[in-house]
Every structure is written in structure tokens, then in C-alpha cells.
Amino acid sequence: MTDPLVLLGRIVTFDPGRPKIDDGALYIGSDGLIEAVQRRSEPPPSGFNGNTRRVQTGGVIYPGLIDLHNHMAYNVLPFWSPPGRTDPYISRNQWPNDRSYEGLVSDPANALGALAGKAHLKYVETKAVVGGVTAIQGSAKMAYPYEGWLVRNVEYETFRTGKKSVFQSVLPLKSDADYHKNRDRMKAGSAFIYHLSEGTDPKLVDEYQKMRAEDCLQPRLGAIHCTALKKPNYHQWSPKSSVIWSPFSNLWLYRDTTDVVAARDEKLRVCLGADWSPSGSKNLLGELKVADLWNREHFDRAFSAREICEMATCNPAAALGWEDRIGRLKKGLYADVVVTTDRGPDLYRNLIESLERDVQLVAINGEPFYGTGKLMKAAGAMRAEPIKVGSLRRSIVLVYPGVPDADMGWAGVLADIAEAKRDPVKRYLEIEKLHEVGKPPPWLMTDKPWDSPAITGQPVPVTVKIPPLDSLVHDAGYFEAVKRSPLHGGLLEHLRDYYLSD
User: Fold this and answer.
1) Domain that holds residue 203
2) Measured by CB atoms within 10 angstroms of the end CB, which terminus of the chain is less buried, N or C?
3) Whole-prediction pTM value?
4) Which of 446, 11, 74, 67 minimizes the C-alpha distance to 283?
5) What is the mean pLDDT of residues 232-237?
């Protein structure tokens, strides 16, 4: 339970009934639900009196961002541009076989996830929340289920009901029984997040045709990538589902991306995902810019700024069947909120153009978890600690009494990762002893089947060289790496302009 809270500022609700409020007040109840979204001058709802905490944000209040495609265990790693390769790949079946992949991607992700799983997870969740993300997909391989650390983890989030409603698969389903099981789950109301036809090889369309033949193109399907599909495929796609677009990763690996204009025109819902740090944006705030860049340079501005923002807010919520819970700022929904700097009159472009330094406050269930020291204090954050985000100074809450394993602050996260890297064999032996007495620590497992020790049967490579942690923000090093890589053929060259414009 939280204390009632009122956030004051310009509000973008993504609620068709009242999409924007210039001088607004967002009323959040002690149960973490939104009680009202209205003008500041209107009478407050019942229960909000003169003693209620009121926060003048001075910014723009949006629903928290929902990243619907990620692989969190890898987000400690820097960009991966295979040495010597200049040509793009045509299929996701190719690049995991590059001889550099194991040592630069698979092994370090596996090692850190096993040796410092708790700290590893907290680092990558922090990396997401720094970009305004309040819910993220791609943590399905945690060694045991958890709910309620920092951001909402889509596969484990039950909104305290204990009922799982989201399932996923990275690889094509193997048997008719698997297709039927997931089809029946979707028909029963669960969501299924599925990598589909990833690459540019026309043969990959067969994956789509198999899903169609097995009646798996259900409304609760979230189809990731779909880069091999063409307009006729979207035309025959029925019932209409959701396409999850990760333009940066597509362009980095395949030098092409999904025809989301065709998907939209055929009434499919378009959502965004940042994918993973070896070939993607650091967070969904960054991915918004890639979507905007591609929309401007290659889609002839087919999408409005509002439509692009919907890909990161209300669209993914609806794709999951959670439109009555998150994704909008509306009475009765959970108060998942991001507040940004007010950069100008167009509030949708304001979100697209916001950088990590513009993220002023992030709250989940109405609880402030990240933001400037001033707004975190004003919002009543408990157990906040300082964190340095690039050159920024911010506050974050990582310790939550009563939540299993949510007992490590930011300084502890960095120290634990450093210690595990300094003497991995010692850490491994310590973990082995914990297993022997039935107290295994958290293990953040890689969720790509070709990497997972649980599937490959390979031991965890504890002595592999783990690179320095990838930075939390899109910094100069990030764009230098983009410039150096020949893989994307210059298609991402102008992304840096969003970060230099002011």
C-alpha cells in the first residue's frame, strides 16, 4: 500500500475520451490505482484532502513504457559486430553460428547470470527503468518465478492474482501439439509472444504459413519481427493480432525491417521492443527514436507521432490483454507512470525526442522507483539511494522489504558483479555450496535456446572473459560503436542526431 499521491503537470493519457490535459492532476489512491485524471482546477475525488501529497512535476506525465520484446539476460553486454563480417544476415538461423558469438555474447551472458544472478537482473532492470520502462518482456528464464522487484516482468506479472496470462517461445514450435496448446491458451484469453519469420529469407514465410494453418493467428498473438512477411501475408492474417517491431536490431542484423505500415493498414496492432543490447537500443525510449527515424526516412511519415508513441504504451497493453490494467492513464488502471521534461508544445513528439536525462520520475503502482532526487523526495519515495546514470545524478529504489531477494541496493549490485568477475571460480564454488543445502541463489538464465545451458547441456563457462558492463544510457561510446560497424550499412547513421539536437 502507498500513500495517496497527486501528480501535477501536462498529461498525455492515451485514453480516446480525453487524450491530453494541459494543466492536469493525476490522482493515485493508496491501492496504487488511478482514482482520477482531470484538470487541476476541478474538484478532487473523494479521499484526497488538503494533506494529500501533491507533486508539481513541471513536466509531462505519460503512462509507463511497455517493452514487448527483449532478452534481458544479455543487456549487460555491449554491441556485437562480428569481426570481419560486412554483409547482413538473412535469417536468425545464421548469426548464432558466427565463430565470435559464443565468446562475445553467449558465454559472458551465461557466466554473469549464473555467478551474480540477483545483481545481474537488478542491473538490466535499472537499465530499462532509466528509459521510462515500467513493464518488459524477456525474463522468462529466471531460475524461479518472481514478481515485484522493479519493473513488471511480463511473463511473471499476475497483478497479484497468481494467474499466469502470458507465454512465449523464441524458436518455432516443434510439434502440432505445441501449436494446439498455444492456440488453445490464446483462445482462452492468454497472450502468446512468439518470434516469427525473423530475417529476410523468403523461406521464413513458411513459419507464418504454419501458424496460419494451425489456427494460431489469434487476437492474443504477439508476433515478434515478421521481417520476411509482405503485404499479402498481412492481408490474409486473420484474426488480426499484434506485430512487435524491433527496428534497430532488424537493421543491425538484416539491413531491413518489418513492413509495419502494411501490418497497420491491414488492422494489425503494432508494438515496439528494444530486443537486446548486442544489436539493439539500450531501452524503449531509444527504440522510439529508431521507429521515428525509419518512419521519416523510409515510410514517408505514414505514422503520426501519436501512433508511434502508442506502440510503446496502449498498444502493447492491449496486445497482452492488459488494456484494463496498464498502458493508459485512466481511472481504475494501475498507476504506472513516467514523467519527462516538457520540451515543447507537441506532447507526442516530446516523448519521442526525450532522452534519458529527460526522465524525471518513474512510478509503478503509484510507487516512485526512479527519478530526480527532488521529485523522488516530493513523491515520498522510501529507501531511495543515489545512482549515477551517465553524467546524471538520480535516485532509485531497489530494496523492498518483504519481497524475496529484493534486498540489494545499487552499490551492492555493482560490488557483487565486480566481485564475481574478479574471482569467478570462488563465486562458483560458493554457489555450489548453497545448492547443496537447498538454498540456490537467483540465476538469470539466457532465454535463447541455443545459449541456455539447461537446453544445450553445456556447463556454465565461469572462466570466460566478461566485458565491462554496458552503460545505462545512449552515450558517445554507443554511437561510436554504431559508426564503426559495417553490418547495418549506414542505415542507423542519423540516429545520433536525436541525441545532438539540443
Assistant:
1) 66-104+133-320
2) C
3) 0.97
4) 67
5) 97
